[in-house]
């Protein structure tokens, strides 16, 4: 599970981290950018792997296919 905290005062959002790490980043953001305001905003939870590598696979497949085609044409 990955957690991302959204700032309630501006458009800032933390990276996808563990719940405690994300919360800490949010608190640090408030301390530097919104001093005097208690940390608020909302939390976004991602149950999937946030690496996003799956989205690149079809593109990689097309690229490999294209390279094979290009190589076969040269012969
Ligand atoms: Zn902010």
Keywords for this structure?
2 strands; single chain; 44% helix; 75 residues; alpha+beta; 2 helices; binds zinc ion; two-stranded antiparallel ribbon
Would you mind describing this structure in some detail?
The protein has 75 residues and is α+β, with helices and mostly antiparallel strands. It starts with a strand and ends with a helix. The chain has one domain. The chain is rod-shaped, with a radius of gyration of 21 Å. The model has no long low-confidence stretch (mean pLDDT 87). The protein is built from 2 helices and 2 strands. It has a two-stranded antiparallel sheet with strand order 1-2. Zinc ion is lined by residues 7, 9-10, 12, 29, 33-34.
Give me a quick take on this structure.
By secondary structure, the protein is of the alpha+beta class.
| Helix/strand order, N-terminal first | EHEH
Structural class: alpha+beta
What does the overall shape look like? rod-shaped
**DSSP, total strands:** 2
Give the strand order of the largest sheet, numbering strands 1, 2, ... along the chain.
Answer: 1-2
Q: How many structural domains can be distinguished in the coordinates?
A: 1
Beta-strand residue percentage: 5-15%
Q: Helix proportion of residues, in percent?
A: 40-55%
What does the average pLDDT come to? Answer: 87
Distance linking N and C termini: 50 Å
Query: Main β-sheet: number of strands, strand sense, barrel status?
Result: 2 strands, antiparallel
The Rg value, from CA coordinates, equals 21 Å
| Ligands, ions, cofactors | zinc ion
Number of helices: 2
Poorly predicted runs are none
